[in-house]
Amino acid sequence: MGEAQELQLHKIDTNEAKETFSLEKNILEDQIMNDSTIINKKTRYYFKLAFYAALVLVGQSSATLLGRLYYEKGGKSKWMATVIQLAGFPILLPYYFFISSTKKLTKKNNNNIIDPKSNQPSIFMLAFVYVSIGLILALICYLFSVGLMYLPVSTFTLICSSQLGFNALFAFFLNSLKFTPYIINSLVLLTISSSLLVFQNDSSNSTNVSKKNYVIGFICTLGASAGYGLVLSLTQLAFKKVIKRENFKAIMDMIIYQSLVATLATLIGLFASGEWNGIKKEMEEFEIGKASYVLDLSFIAITWQVFNIGSVGLIFEISSLFSNAISVLGLPVVPMLAVAFFHEKMDGIKAISMVLAVWGFISYVYQQYLDESNNKREIRNTTLNVIKGSLPLEEVNIRS
């Protein structure tokens, strides 16, 4: 009887050992597959980030240079230069509908049923957000047009780098951004970088404008940079307080509707100012021909939308702050291209300003990197605590 019981216990132990081995083997295989899947996902994720960042850098640099070419070769209409920055938004519609249909298909396949009416803001509130931000955007684009008309491209882009500092400043009041030593360092450097350009000599001014117009261009560009920082902070606030979701559709709705409002506002400005009457004459007198005039304006519209696609992608994948940081990263590239294409002079003040702008950008991005690392560490620690809390004490000791 005792031998039979021992034999039975031995069989049970053997079976348990086999089951344990089989379970461990399955866990190991699942872990290997999960690790492989994670690596593939990360590769695709970083590829998308690189692609979107390239669109931002190429789109912004090309649009700025083409905008300067418009004025350089005889363009005089500030309102036309403003409209063309915004009027290309219908190019985004195929991209919007394609990605939206893909997202819906993915949700359907995952049986991810979401009530579309849950936590939806009222149409009145959405209209107020789109119209108000759209009108501010129209004003910003007009100020940018004035600045680009009166300033050399290199000076214009270096002043634009201050938008990152303004973004941080407005985010402090509107989005509860905490000021750290790196953020403060970035603000100080970007402020000094822009301020230095006030003392630039007239000899380095390739636009041949008066000192008065140079000051107007400087003030308009600085105001536009501040406005752009304000729009980013207001957009983030609107997503948090009004829209209460930050998915692809919500972001694209924001961009398309505010672009529609801004385009209509600038078209009214174009006709009300009377500049519309001079467009035909401007086209005929354009130094490199009518066809080049049309192509230049068309490519300005397209390249700004290329920038928008990249910017939307980065906002959707990471955040609006990161998207803005990448756009500022491209600003020091434009002065180099301006030297090559428009024969602008890179004097000592511009060089120092560019170094300070890059330094300020690096300081700002490093703080974002620290914040991201801290967030990941907190999430990982929380996950480990939850896992340990859900396992029996013996298993925790064994795995530890």
Summarize the structure.
The chain has helices spanning 2-72, 78-86, 92-109, 123-150, 153-160, 163-174, 181-196, 211-243, 248-273, 279-284, 290-317, 320-329, 333-342, 348-390, 393-399. With 400 residues, it is mainly α. The chain has one domain (17-399).
Helix/strand layout:
Blueprint: H1 2-72, H2 78-86, H3 92-109, H4 123-150, H5 153-160, H6 163-174, H7 181-196, H8 211-243, H9 248-273, H10 279-284, H11 290-317, H12 320-329, H13 333-342, H14 348-390, H15 393-399
Domain count: 1
* Helix proportion: over 70%
**Biggest beta-sheet profile:** none
Roughly how many Å is the radius of gyration? 28 Å
- How far the N terminus sits from the C terminus, by CA atoms, comes to 41 Å
Put simply, the count of helices is: 15
Percent of residues in beta strands: under 5%
Helix-strand makeup class: mainly alpha
Nearest-integer average pLDDT: 79
| Strands, total number | 0
Q: Can you write the helix and strand succession as a string?
A: HHHHHHHHHHHHHHH
Instruction: Give the overall shape.
Output: globular
Counting copies of identical and different chains, the oligomeric state is single chain
Q: Low-confidence segments, ≥5 residues, pLDDT <50?
A: 105-116
